User: Fold this.
Amino acid sequence: MNPEDFLNGQGNCETYAPGYDFPDEKQDSKKSTRKFNFIPVSEIINNLKPTRWLINGYIEQHTMTMIFGDPASGKSFVAIDKSCCIVTGTPYHGHDVSQGAVFYIAGEGHNGLGRRFKAWEQHNGISLENAPLYIAERPAQLFDEKHANTVADAVQELADKHGVTPCLIVIDTLARNFGGGDENSTKDMNLFIQHVDELKDRWKATALTVHHTGHNDKDRARGAIALKGAMDHEYRVQKDSCDIITLQSTKTKDGPNPAPLSFEIVTVPLPLNSGNILIEGAALSKTETQTRIKGKKLSPQKRRAVDILRTCLIEKGEKRYVRKGMAQVDCVTLEEYREYLRVENIVDSDDPDNIRRSISRLITQLTNEGIIGSYGDYVWIPDKPD
Assistant:
């Protein structure tokens, strides 16, 4: 099987490294053997660039990103929705995108995947016919260096043929595209991460990995913890008893976690090519319905911490623009909030160091769960918790 048999499609895009520009390098089809080198810090700090978003506020360009969730939670629907928005230049539910070519390495059959892409077309009224979206014909084995290089060569050959630059590479799912290694082994997972990282860096693209939750710990992705450490962005997908799908940030490397998004799965009639028989597909439709993410009922301590923040906001709050592109929020400084928590004895301890550490950990947990918002020196309540 040659690379052209592995992937099919056409398109074009231009992507950038977030934060600063890397020097141009000739890309070789083999593993990089360029000289290991150092540069003065001044070359980086004097060439800073604004954050370049793939999806504004949610995913930066040239990053490692992961979506994880239980089976049938809707995580592949989320990955497909993001891919289609990027490849067509369609805003992602109100958030601008950087349009470009998408390479989708899927672990499931083309028929099921085709129904989902067709349903996205029908539901959004946007054609994918000539979009630069390319689907792998079979799963990859990205744990294995030789096979990872084969995937890279296939992407490069097709990109050269159609004059495109990959801006998003989707791996759906990690388990189906891992290969013969053990995803619970840190050593094996690090090899997978290394090979995906090389794919990302080769075109300064974003690598989006779709993965399952842990068997016992549903609050994190399955397998070696090294995977989370390698991510710039991480999102958890959950579906509640009303079939509302919630996408919530669990990690943003350089900034605050964005607000959660909620979706419904809607049924979409799909005509077969003959035009005589209807089949059904499904697509995501954004909803403003606010539902609690499963397993996130607030503990008494966290509820009290939110109540203390409300009091702090009443007594000390001021409306501020805390981040470019964000509306004014009624906020207080983190130091003010920490002091209120300390005075109200939110931590049952007499050790000042333990109190300080516990308060910082509590604020981080509330922020990561989307209960409170924080950025820089400020903290606020984005939405009232249940």
